[in-house]
Design brief:
Blueprint: H1 11-19, H2 22-33, H3 36-67, H4 74-94, H5 97-120, H6 128-149
Length: 154
Amino acid sequence: MHPFSATRPPKLALGLGLAGLIPFITGALGLWVTPEAWRERVLEELLAYAALILAFMGAIHWGLAMRADEHSSKAPIQLALSVVPPLLGWVGLSLPINLALPVFFVAFATLYFADLWAVRHGLAPVWYPALRKPLSIVVILSLIVAWLATGRIG
């Protein structure tokens, strides 16, 4: 079976994806249980990690564009999709917290739909949404939990 036609993600991709959730979950929950003096630092680290992951996810779209047919009308779209996530992460890091967290969760939600677009156009493997959906849900929920906790920082 060709890897692009498999419907379930490879176990290694799933395991690594789940491991990548640890900083999101611990950062979001940490904002609720960490002593007040450390909460701002926890939030800074959570946002830095979110920005890094947006850059990583953008790089996936760059890679998909590189393997697309150079005459395809989809390759330029993939290239554009590759630079938007890291730019949003960079912008998010420069914003006040009450704006940064919504930018991050909107960026991750939008990125999920970009991933679906890539699958629909044959640029990403069929199994990709089965990996990305649960990961995206946990990331977005973690960012929302963090956003709710920001009233406790200060």
